[in-house]
């Protein structure tokens, strides 16, 4: 396979060769890179495989997954291509590494959050859950994409109350869009700008642990 994306993978330090692991795919913000995302999930890197996906387009010293016409207005063709390529990459990584296909999570910030939510709507229950930090769902995704059900997808959305890039009303509009689509929806706001506070990190790390454990408990009950 001709890979579109450079990526960084962190495997649990004491892996069981006969086990498949829950996995978090991280998607960074515009102008950042995959290394900057690892610190957010490092506290649970012994429980999850962490796959940091670098945007394939350069932007200054960093990277992005697609370009914009204007703030909040992705170039549609580039966005669609990113959605297709990221789905292909997720399937590629699942085949290559000991990834449990029933326990795949996306965690994205800003541009990465936009993609994480859009991918959830495009992939449905191929994902177990997403963490979307300070993002939104583009209108064309809501109205023109062939959307899949997310009723079984766990969704954690957070937003900074003082976000100077995407105002807090966008966070409320985003969670209103997902309400009714999944019963597994968590929404939190933080007294922060366009970033991730320590409290925010602590909350979504605990959420990921709990969500993965809940799935494991259900599976054990069905054995």
Automatic annotation (TrEMBL):
<dbReference type="InterPro" id="IPR029058">
    <property type="entry name" value="AB_hydrolase_fold"/>
</dbReference>
<keyword id="KW-0378">Hydrolase</keyword>
<feature type="domain" description="Phospholipase/carboxylesterase/thioesterase">
    <location>
        <begin position="18"/>
        <end position="201"/>
    </location>
</feature>
<dbReference type="InterPro" id="IPR050565">
    <property type="entry name" value="LYPA1-2/EST-like"/>
</dbReference>
<dbReference type="Pfam" id="PF02230">
    <property type="entry name" value="Abhydrolase_2"/>
</dbReference>
<comment type="similarity">
    <text>Belongs to the AB hydrolase superfamily. AB hydrolase 2 family.</text>
</comment>
<protein>
    <submittedName>
        <fullName>Esterase</fullName>
    </submittedName>
</protein>
<dbReference type="InterPro" id="IPR003140">
    <property type="entry name" value="PLipase/COase/thioEstase"/>
</dbReference>
């Amino acid at each position: 396979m001709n890979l579109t994306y450079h990526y960084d993978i962190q495997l649990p330090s004491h892996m069981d060769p006969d086990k498949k692991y829950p996995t978090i795919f991280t998607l960074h913000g515009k102008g950042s890179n995959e290394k900057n995302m690892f610190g957010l999930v490092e506290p649970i890197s012994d429980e999850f495989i962490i796959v940091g996906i670098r945007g394939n387009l350069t932007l200054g010293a960093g990277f992005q997954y697609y370009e914009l016409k204007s703030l909040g207005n992705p170039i549609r063709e580039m966005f669609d291509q990113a959605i297709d390529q990221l789905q292909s990459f997720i399937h590629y990584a699942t085949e290559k590494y000991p990834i449990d296909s029933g326990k795949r999570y996306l965690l994205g910030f800003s541009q990465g959050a936009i993609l994480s939510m859009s991918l959830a709507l495009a992939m449905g229950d191929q994902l177990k859950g997403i963490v979307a930090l300070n993002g939104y769902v583009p209108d064309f995704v809501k109205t023109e994409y062939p959307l899949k059900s997310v009723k079984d997808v766990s969704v954690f959305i957070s937003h900074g109350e003082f976000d100077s890039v995407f105002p807090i009303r966008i966070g409320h509009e985003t969670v209103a869009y997902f309400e009714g689509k999944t019963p597994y929806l968590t929404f939190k706001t933080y007294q922060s700008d366009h970033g991730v506070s320590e409290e925010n990190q602590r909350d979504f790390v605990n959420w990921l642990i709990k969500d993965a454990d809940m799935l494991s408990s259900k599976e054990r009950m069905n054995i």
